Amino acid sequence: MSGSEALFLCRCLLVVATVRVGLTVFSYNRVRAMVTRLNARQCASMGELRLVAWGVAAAARFVPGATCLTQALSGQYLLARKGNASNIRIGIERGTGEQLKAHAWLVSDDHIVLGGSVDGFAHLIDHGSL
Length: 130
Known about the structure:
With 130 residues, the protein is an alpha+beta fold. Helices cover 47% and strands 20% of the residues. It is globular.
């Protein structure tokens, strides 16, 4: 790992931990408002999307309770800091019976950055800067 990659991973760890604490202390809407206040309008390159996906996923392994929502918000913040627009997509799993299972993805320019496949999920809402 290069020095710049190690530095980026440290930044990701700080962001993921901060978002996790934020979601514990504040509401989702308040944390989302803090993230989306950044003026992010341009599309990220595939390299930037891959870097954010790698950094957030790696950092989340060290942060207890770093759920899909924590990771999506963290990735959105990291992209927005560079002016790159993205959405948090929230959906629920189909066919789960009485048990409701929700999931969050980070989407940028129709590319899923974090969260895996949307197959088997019903789309509920998108939140973000796109």
